Prior knowledge:
2 copies of one chain form a homodimer.
Chain A: E1 2-6, H1 13-22, E2 26-31, H2 34-42, H3 53-64, E3 68-72, H4 78-88, E4 92-95, H5 102-105, H6 109-133, E5 138-144, E6 159-164, E7 167-172, H7 180-199, E8 202-208, E9 210-212, H8 238-247, E10 252-255, E11 261-266, H9 267-279, E12 287-292, E13 295-298, H10 299-312, E14 319-322, H11 339-343, H12 353-363
Parallel strand pairs in A: 1-2, 1-4, 2-3, 4-5, 5-8, 8-12, 9-11, 10-14
Antiparallel strand pairs in A: 6-7, 11-13
Amino acid sequence: MRILIIGGDGYLGWPTAMHFAQRGHEVAVLDNMIKRRWESELGVAPLWPIATLTERAQALRETTDREVEVFVGDVADKSVVRGVLSRFLPEAIVHYGEQPSAPFSMIDAEHAILSQANNVLGTLQLAFAMHDIVPDAHLIKLGTMGEYGTPNIDIEEGYLEIEHNGRRDRLPFPKSPGSFYHLSKVHDSHNLMFAAKLWNLRITDLNQGVVYGTTTDETAMDPRLATSFHYDEYFGTVINRFVAQAVAGMPLTVYGAGGQKRGYLNIRDTLQCVEIAAMNPASAGEFRVFNQFTEQFTIDELANLVVEAAAKQGIRAEKKSIPNPRMELENHHYNARNSGLIALGLQPHRLTVDVLAGMIAWAAQHPERISRDVIIPTVQWRKQPEGVREA
Amino acid sequence: MRILIIGGDGYLGWPTAMHFAQRGHEVAVLDNMIKRRWESELGVAPLWPIATLTERAQALRETTDREVEVFVGDVADKSVVRGVLSRFLPEAIVHYGEQPSAPFSMIDAEHAILSQANNVLGTLQLAFAMHDIVPDAHLIKLGTMGEYGTPNIDIEEGYLEIEHNGRRDRLPFPKSPGSFYHLSKVHDSHNLMFAAKLWNLRITDLNQGVVYGTTTDETAMDPRLATSFHYDEYFGTVINRFVAQAVAGMPLTVYGAGGQKRGYLNIRDTLQCVEIAAMNPASAGEFRVFNQFTEQFTIDELANLVVEAAAKQGIRAEKKSIPNPRMELENHHYNARNSGLIALGLQPHRLTVDVLAGMIAWAAQHPERISRDVIIPTVQWRKQPEGVREA
Lengths: 391, 391
């Protein structure tokens, strides 16, 4: 199958590209490297230096004899996206090419608007290009479980059967996202639900939970094939952040009460889910939604697990509650369905203490690389108006 | 009260500005005249030539001794919106400043992306500026009934009480909009719901039905104070379009089966609703939603009413079904609540045959001004891919 990975230079994009290439698919990646630039601007970096995308593709060729074709450009640029689709004619498109951080989107007006413009308009440009050039291709779009927020009812997969005043309909599940980033994904979902119906496109929306993990089968083959491990306040997801804090001898910073419950999955399962989606395409005209996570934890439960795993590695870690920089409920109902991908064969990797201990051992190879200054949150969801901000 | 009207040069914006000025409020308008440029690009024009915004403000001063302050600029431009808010310090902001046409948004990728960028990013820029400069002001934002689509359940005002698996919550009403324009309003609603909660802003979202009408108390005072009457496929709403077709001796073109049911209101009631909202502001932190329409009709019912009204004016009109350019159900359940504004005192102007006859008489003063070429729809929701479009 010819598979195009948009955002193929990222934490998930590059491992996904290698995963498909190793299974004999014809793979191309498209990336404009904007995330590397954002990292520079914010003064953060992955725990390990990451080779350029071109170097990675070369290393993959040397290591495995597999080819990944590299396109450099912006999916929001009409001529770029149309050029790539016309030349590569993908049968499946995995779209990771969005600004992926909630705190980034909450820095200020510029970053909020940049996040929504980049994500929503880029995805629109892609949908129009698919309609014109590869209308039968299958779009696999990464959404987020954060689109749903934390409603007081169980979360279903994309849709909800509603009875009201004696009548019934199956409607989009109501969304209550908690940042301008999460909002951009909600906008994408609405746009793509319409586009699928309008143009008979095949679209799968993967509402992904929080991903953790350092390694996949392919990243482990050669140091040059490693994927970026972020532990900073912008791009570091919570488990990866706790692991880095344990290694750096810092307390594990729990935001607020720690009762925030979310869905989580191992990076290996991201690859498995995306592959399952690709091998079982949505029907023409279908906007299919899967909730992509394997387990649910509260922040406090995660901190406890990391403390236990650190002890196994001879590290004494402790958790510490800090004021919550976000606007979110800290104790709430959370029960989300994730049966769609399981039914198609997903075999979850569970988050065990041993898995966490392995991550800690991995990060502890070079503890001096961890910058302690970039972990503690500085972006506050609720901030003083600019006009009255203290100097 | 100091009231800022964004999009104050438009069909509704200008009458709204005059309405508040006549009632003794301090009024400013902000507009970048982009809609006049879009009209030129598309080759359409209002039925009557419209004075410039500056001329209109001058004419209002001469006619009534009322002042409307004119700001020219783009709400999506950070320095513009912050400059205007800092200088005028509005207590209420009525935001009409968006691309208002579904067919415009469905022309092609450029127009879809332009519509979403203009509407969603402009409104975001405004929300951030309010937070920083006038956090206690009341934002009255124009949404559309089209955000809901035509679900098979009754439509409530913004929220829905949902019971699911034995638990309950009040959640945003699920949205199923039918164009990239309508989608932009859904995105606005989600962004503003979050912003209200995040920053304790006061926001009223008016999900407006289809507006008809030629005249308000203030537009009737002087020809230079007239508002734009559009009857073209882009900016002409259906009743105004039928009136123009009757006057031009064309059949009233009903899209498809004509069973499409929607909410409608007279332009005079738009002014009344916006005034009611302004005089009864939302609470701090509240995202309040009203459905702003007074009556529900099917397209076929409207065509019959216009035929009857035309006969009263000695014009023999007939309706004619044409293939539906849109993607929409043509026979469906439709029952939307609109009790919020009624409870606050809205006194509806009903769509009677006499009201329609008055509109026909108004348009018939210069039938030669009606361009027959711009009424029949050319924008198709479902079009051939560009790659295979015939030359």
